[in-house]
Give the backbone structure.
Amino acid sequence: MHKLPVMPAGAIRIFNARQNNLKGIDVQFPHHALTVITGPSGSGKSSLAFDTLYAEGQRRYIESLSTYAKQFLERMPKPLVDRIDGIFPAVAIEQKNPTTSSRSTVGTATEIHDYLRLLWARVGHQRCHKCNSPVESESPSTGANRLIHTYDGRQIVIGFPLRRSDRFDHDLQVENLLSMGFVRILVQDEFHRLADLPTELRLDAVTNVIVVTDRVRADQRNRSRLADSLALAFSEGDGTAVVLHEDERKPPRGLPHMQRFRSDLGI
């Protein structure tokens, strides 16, 4: 009787593997770990990995399917082994590269990438890497409700980050913003009127420019206005709106608080 050393639960155990040139091999592999099988040519690496371990995992998976599904799948013979414990459904990837795409991965080669992407999107919880707060999508309607709840009647400023482009110089950016009806911008904690910008301030030479879409009090009476302003900010800001409020204990032009919302409108 073959005995293996005592190992914590969560391992694959193979007893008396005799496939091809294997001579009664007993071996165990821990779950959730990367295990490499090494040895000289002809020592039985492929026989152990593919013809024994993979073949049994695939055979058990196929046996668990319905009779109707089995008729479309290739039946694999049972490997020459006394027993295999702790085995999962198996996937094998050949050493040769079946595709010429440089973007191919194990996930795309095994066709599980789409399922993993769906799993992460639906089940996963994203958090900000800076403040660890949950990252949630917001529509203008839900965003307006959260603004009312968060700021509770205080005056706030709604805007969006100005997109930088090498195709537009300072004068053209100012002209475009004025033609769209925007009046103010926020640069380095200071508000400026687009029609009266300082000569030394050039939009093509500064970063973190916030275009103001509205200055409004966050209360139920202005809920529709809040939603419209957020929708405009989402649209012009590539899905990002910036909301600011001026703390009464701070200078009027200070920026003690910034809250970002992400749009779920796909715009």
User: Anything to note?
Assistant: The first helix runs from residue 45 to 63. The chain is about 30% helix and 20% strand.
